């Protein structure tokens, strides 16, 4: 029969949690005849040794030489390999990995993580009328007592109406405050009377590779609402194309993130939201590669959506198109229009200039420009290198507000 191990977990400690375990005595088996013979021989040997020590002491025999002989004899029995029955105590140190850590985080943030239903309409041929249907489900995070809920843009994209399912499965109506496709962030609002918990927002700039994180959301919809998964930060500043030409610096984690988790919370060990879960790599043979938008990236977007219902991104003040050389290779971006009063116009850029670089980075697509501008704010000064009349020139351009709501630079 194999040994049985009993584990004892001490009280929760915020940083390191030692787990002491003890290997108890083994169950004694009935001794064989051979074992009794060996035991008898050992008993006789010990008795003989004791008698010999008595006589040596009496007759003055050299005790040191005799001790060496005895040690040699005992070693020949290989007693070190015998099965010890005394308990052995060991200590294993784990870095914040006990159940209390995850439980505390789940209890603190879980009630602020909600389900999101994206609703549309479909024609019912049997009743000859339109009826409301759920076309998608995701997750969201309550971030204020005012009832603001942050989620992913793709969770509510195309919705005719949206509802929020609170912890406890109460479904309440929600309004879409604003959406931003470039960052994949959307802001909703529910009646403040329904707010029972608010998730605290952390500082994603302090996130380190290897630290523990907890993902909370509704994978596969409301049936698995409030699912908690646990893992580590696998990487930071992962630049992935979100499908709109803009590369967002993402937090990578091996905490399980599945369809329906989008818009949910990625939480650190202090119970602070450090990211909004948004994507995973789901190709065959790939496991444990989920991604979250850093909360520091999300905060200014939320603020803009609250104030303006849209995100005010910095713009150069130009319209561009791709420019090819005679061999069909893209050289840069051709400026087709410069808008009056913008940073581009004030800096001296002209129609016909070919943008080669911005802030020292090569530019060959409109997505390149978007990605560079996503790291700047209104009022920042950038350096644009252009090709004009066969010569390269650098211009300092102050980024401004959008020219109008329908123009994209």
From TrEMBL:
Keywords: Hydrolase, Membrane, Oxidoreductase, Protease, Transmembrane, Transmembrane helix. One of its GO terms (molecular function) is serine-type endopeptidase activity. Its EC number is 1.3.1.74. SMART domains: PDZ (SM00228). One of its GO terms (biological process) is proteolysis. Residues 305-390 form the PDZ domain. Gene3D superfamilies: 2.30.42.10, Trypsin-like serine proteases. The chain crosses the membrane at residues 36-61. Belongs to the peptidase S1C family. PANTHER family: PEPTIDASE S12, PROTEASE DO-LIKE 8, CHLOROPLASTIC. This is 2-alkenal reductase.
